[in-house]
Amino acid sequence: MTDAKAGGTREIGTGVVDLIGVLAYGELSAFDRLAEDARTAPTLSGRAALASMAAAEMGHYGLLERYLAERGVRVEDAMRPFMRHVDAFQDSTAPRTWLESLVKAYVVDNLAADLYRELAGVLDDETRGLVVTVLADTGHSAFAQREVAAAIENEKPLRDRLALWSRRLLGEALTQAQYVVAESDGLAELIVAGTGDLSGIAALFRKLQQQHTKRMQALGLG
Amino acid sequence: MTDAKAGGTREIGTGVVDLIGVLAYGELSAFDRLAEDARTAPTLSGRAALASMAAAEMGHYGLLERYLAERGVRVEDAMRPFMRHVDAFQDSTAPRTWLESLVKAYVVDNLAADLYRELAGVLDDETRGLVVTVLADTGHSAFAQREVAAAIENEKPLRDRLALWSRRLLGEALTQAQYVVAESDGLAELIVAGTGDLSGIAALFRKLQQQHTKRMQALGLG
Question: In chain A, how many domains are there?
């Protein structure tokens, strides 16, 4: 990813460029997913809610694009190496129902937030501030949580199906995340630095898994 | 549309509720259209540009929703009567190419801006301020204009096809707009009040047509 740097006025490490690049493409890709899922909404207000979530992703995308541009990096160059892994995740987890869409939005948003929270310690103040802003809870998670909780109440078979779905989402996300880290030396170094340990990557993924499990239990999908 | 009013704290006429309702559903529908068209973008930056345009529509939608809510009107109720006409317009003008998408985004945004500008005179200050904000040029038109202008330079057959396309867009938009006005007494009264004339509706549509023609000439599609 060093070729993505071109006369930037501020210093930026390749690990950070890659981190922001994955995050940016994740936002663009989430926009796509949510916009498409909005069409399957059973109500007009559900449709508007998902469309608004999608719109929020593009607001974040704009912040990330500006951050990179100020450092002489084109967001397209930063995203490109990671597109196929993010696309592979989306393709392998295309929701078939409205509730699957909501569970996916909820799971992925929180997983991304956890991941970046774990890495916050190794980022400089400005980058950390950006990441925190981009991953701040916009209240959309609460919408998904409320809808899902209402739908699964007293519906054991549905709850079981969605619990299975949430485990599959986690598995596919971690699989693609591993590919991403394997292909970016800078990102791997960042994680090792953040966790202070050579076994840091495996430990990080275990931690994400535990947080996911706890969250699913709270949602009634544990 | 009077049933959409339910204990609002501020006065609002049915014509204004209908006007804001059409505008709100137009935004939600444009979000859908732009999000879908973003997938056909030939470049990653074009994809992000259209996704950002789509996101901006939802920002406007949120403003309209809040405006109605403050007056005791649910945005869903205000939009519902006009959904099928807006949907009919979108269905009859689904773009088949990236350039058709851009021409459509450009034509529709400007047509809507013209329409609301013509009606601004009959709106109270607060409503007028809202409409102006929602229809303010966000620089997205400039993007579409630039891309289209570059594409048609020295490409007469392409230019002719897109000129035909822009005429079809105008025709379909005015057809559906006529249905909308025919079904909303409040909206018809608003237009007559705004143009001060019983023949106001026909005159308004003629004016929109003229402004469209001028704009297409400026774009090289006249």
Answer: 1
